[in-house]
Specification:
There is one protein chain. The chain is α/β, with parallel strands linked by helices and 677 residues long. It has five domains: 2-99, no CATH class; 168-274, Beta Barrel (OB fold (Dihydrolipoamide Acetyltransferase, E2P)); 307-359, no CATH class; 370-566, Rossmann fold; 583-667, Rossmann fold (3-Layer(aba) Sandwich). It has helices at 2-7, 18-32, 37-52, 58-69, 101-104, 109-121, 144-152, 158-162, 283-297, 307-312, 318-326, 334-359, 370-379, 386-399, 417-430, 442-456, 478-490, 525-530, 551-557, 586-598, 621-632, 647-658; strands spanning 168-171, 186-200, 206-214, 217-223, 237-247, 250-254, 257-260, 271-274, 406-411, 434-438, 469-472, 495-498, 512-518, 540-545, 562-566, 603-606, 638-641, 664-667. A hairpin with a 2-residue loop joins β3 (206-214) and β4 (217-223). α11 (318-326) crosses α12, α13 (370-379) crosses α15 and α14 (386-399) runs parallel beside α15. Mean pLDDT is 82; it is low at 79-117 and 614-618.
Amino acid sequence: MLDLEEKQGWRNRAVIGGLRAMSTRWAQDARNEQAASATIEVVVTLMTRYDSAEPAERPAIADSIRQALAGEPAEVVSPSDEALPHPADEEPPFADEEFSFEAAYPPPEPTHVARERVRRQQPRSERKPHELAAAPTILAGVGSSTAEQLARLDIHRVVDLLWHLPARHEDFSKLRTIDQLMPGEQVTVIANLWDVRERKVGINRQVVQGILADGTGTLHATWWNKYVRNQLTPGSTLRFSGKVGLYLGQKTLDNPTFEDVDDEMVATGRIAPVYPLTEGLGQKRMRNLARQALDEFVHLVPDPLPPALCDEYDLPDLVAALEQMHFPDSAEAVARRRLAFDEFLYIQLGVLQRRHELHSRTAPALAANDEGLSTFKAALPFALTNAQERVLGEIGQDLRREIPMTRLVQGDVGSGKTAVATAAMWVAAGNGFQSALIAPTQILAEQHHRGISRMMASLTRSDGAPFQVALLTGRITGSEREAILNGLREGAIDVVIGTTALIQEGVEFANLGFVVVDEQHRFGVEQRGALRTKGDLQPHVLVMSATPIPRSLALTIYGDLDLSIIDEMPPGRTPVTTKLFRPAERERLYGFLRREVKAGRQAFIVYPLVEESDKLDVGAAVEAYDKLRNEILPDLRIALLHGRMSGNEKDEIMRAFAAQEYDVLVSTSVIEVGIDV
């Protein structure tokens, strides 16, 4: 510490608050180490006098401190202006009270506050609203290289930078002295950089290490970017922010951010933003760019919400919300609540607009008479449940109107959604209109084709002709495809079931009146709406989902859809038994699996990931598949299915599994819902 004082020209800046501020803590440490009382008294007196001495007198006092610490007789040098009280006559500094870091070296808030006040008082007429759409190069210090980096983050305009919100925040607002630091804390310290040096840790890798000190202790800091060395000057006083660690009993800061004590707090001493980045663009640079954009442009962003609405829901205006999203003053989520409110509002407005547009169009009125439905129900090999009857009644009421139906039917796998949809297809056919069912995959489309064909096998149209059900997928080509397209165009086909092949160009209907979308969350709004344009009139649309969605959420996201729920399973269904096996019980589970396969059954093993991850400690399908097939269950036929496979590959695997060519299917969550096995 005295060596650093000498390097700095005896300015009493080697420790925060000067040697007088440090003397109390040093005396306590010395007593704990059982140093001689006389030595402690002499050193504290010298440290106190050093604080008031002139720079020219301080070298002599420093020599006396060194002599006292070495156990040699030390001359107690008095400053030339006036003698200071002896420790026997005066209590050591801060002896009767806790050392106050703020009193010894107050945070640079006055500078920060003054700069902020001046900045806010400056007129903002220099920037114009149209400049929000300008390229980021309009900002000071942003050239073509930085603009390219920002473009990789999809930031092409200044307004994009304002809406490039932090992924999270780090709370560096806790200002601590070094002796108060606890491992694991996110903190800010104001400290003097005693020393900084580079250390080689690999063939081509170097780290930068520094020693930080204030009036209460020392701290080691490590940076893994060797270029940080160019930004650090020994002897400078900085704000350092980071997470406190512990290495060999020594407190550490790993890769802390730092700023000069007189700079406005952007990355230290506050809740700091952590942005999504790209190669070549660091957090410090991104924070400064965001700060600059906010200072110059955020007041130009128009607020779509009227002040009265903000007041009604206790929301900040958009300018304040954006400012607080980037650089919050507190951990309160008021700004996030405002932006979330906007998102939900836009969703609802979009939903209402879609609903209004649909209701302004005309759909065919499809009357469902009891006799016709009774004929259909009699042809089924099972009786409809009460829930199916209720939902079918709700659909029937919609079909009778000339307003296009848009209804979501939600029900668990096996609850009978397809049977209800088929009954509605029968109603459409009875009124002379065609129906189409679109499924997300070929294997689901083929399954629906088989099931609906069985339900319709004994039924005939009003003219006595057999009920025609066709399948149209990407696999169907050549003359077979042409025959189906002609049948749809001429009205000879009553129901067509397929994949996205149904919405391709060239597929035309004679009189499409009813559309079913299976697993509707697998399709976008445009895909769901594409079949609506396949006829002269707007067809009625029924979407089905086995994914459980809370009613409130369903009404929020799919507010343009009416909601029906099949909440009853058909009788005779085998109840599902759920059991939890601990990792140590895997052998029991594998034994159970072998017994089930031996009895003629099959098994799914579902993993959350395709391949192993360094960041996530969860199972991965590819590695598990190899181990199961080669080591654990080599006697069983095992297949692998995951989302990185092509559509054809996934269909082939599922088709083979459904045909019992495999005993076990190792899969990710891409596994199809509702596959018959």
